[in-house]
Amino acid sequence: MKTLVYFASGPKRERYYNLNYDKVILIDKIFDKPNSKTIYDLKRNKIVCIGMDCLQSIEYLKHNNIKIDCFVVLNEGLFEGGGSYPLHGDFFLGKIMPLFNKEYIHIFSPSYYRIRKIEKLDIPFSKKQLSEYDNQFIDPKVFSNHSGGKVYLMTKNTSRIEFSVGNTIVRIVNDSIWEDYDYLDLLFLSGKGNHFNGFNKVKSISSFSNMMQVAEDMKLACVGCTPFGGAYVDIIKNIAKATITYPKEISFYHLNTTDFSELKKYVNDKYL
To answer: Given this structure, which CATH class describes domain 159-270?
Structure first.
């Protein structure tokens, strides 16, 4: 089943029935208003309208075993319209990434955000921009008149580096931390971690020492964290000097290509 999901979609449009997808899922808070028609029937309807916050809807999609073949975000209302977080920020893309198929279509407007990191779409997928001459191309204006819409074919391209520091297994993972949610005992999130306060096994990270103390106190075997601006090489050196009982495994997750660059170089020279 081919599925297109349009986040912060605005109202349902009849032209969406012509899209070459089995399911077109529209997610927007407008469908949660009294006079709006919210359609949750994923089995019978081609177009499904879900009245939820975009972040909350991810759990709904996951619960219903939805895999995304086409991801659409255009003119999401971040600057005007009440949007409280960017749908192309690392914390949202990281959360939705486990639902992306290994190859999928990504439609967004790089110029909308005016932030270089977001414009680059720097996540662990190789990307190819599609033109109107490609079979998989969908004109972004089908969804929104907002100018600057681009269409990319995305192919998953993740990496994991694993090494031992004393009796502790350490990993540097270019992938979403949410891919390993079931494996990890606790996820330590930086930045917008407070958006996930209602989730089990999630804490905001204040410092590496705080994460290690929590892991020791709770006797956690496997923990993971997202980038938090620490002196990562010094952290590895300190692990080598210390006697650590818990955690047994520490994983550093990142989405952006340049994250942990200095640490990777140090590890490559010292441990690999």
So the answer is: alpha beta
Say how far apart CA 30 and CA 119 lie, in whole Å: 27
What class has domain 3-156? Answer: alpha beta
Measured on CA atoms in the order 113, 119, 123, 127, is the torsion positive or negative? Answer: positive
| 3-156 and 159-270 have identical folds | no
Between 196 and 220, name the one with better pLDDT: 220
Give the Cα-Cα-Cα angle 237, 239, 240 (nearest 5 degrees). 65
Contact yes or no for 227/254 (Cβ under 8 A): yes
User: What pLDDT, in 10s, does the model give residues 211-226?
Assistant: 999 999 999 999 999 9
Q: How far apart are CA 7 and CA 10, in angstroms?
A: 9
> What size, in residues, is the chain?
272
Beta bridge partners of 14: none
Q: Where are the domains of the chain?
A: 3-156, 159-270
